[in-house]
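Write out the 3D structure for:
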Amino acid sequence: MKAIFKSTVPPLLVLLFSYAAFSKLFTFSAFDQQLHNQAFPGWLADFLLYFLIPAEIVTALLLCFKRTVLIGLLVSTVLLLAFTAYISLVLADYFSKAPCSCGGVLTSLGWKSHLIFNLVFTALTITSLTIHLKQEVRDKE
């Protein structure tokens, strides 16, 4: 089972983050508009506009190489937890408005479905990260 997690979760995350980055990149002006229509300040929307796409691409690249897969899993966990927290706040009606700024196939998901999707990927990522960390500790002993 551990081998399955180690061999399948990183490529799944590569697909997820590559898809997310390129769907934002190919619809950049719409992504910009969606971010600036969120409930957070304009400066944060500006930051996210230029941070998220490179962060998702770099994360996908980190997950492609054995030497950097652990860092990729750590960054994946942070990105997934951050967006999962945002979705949770949306579902808790924390924000006065919450238009979706996700692209591609995920636009058809409702907020609850999106939360489940993110929770599944977060659980897979944390499980894979734990397996990789335990293996690294064993290898150093």
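The chain has a mean pLDDT of 89.
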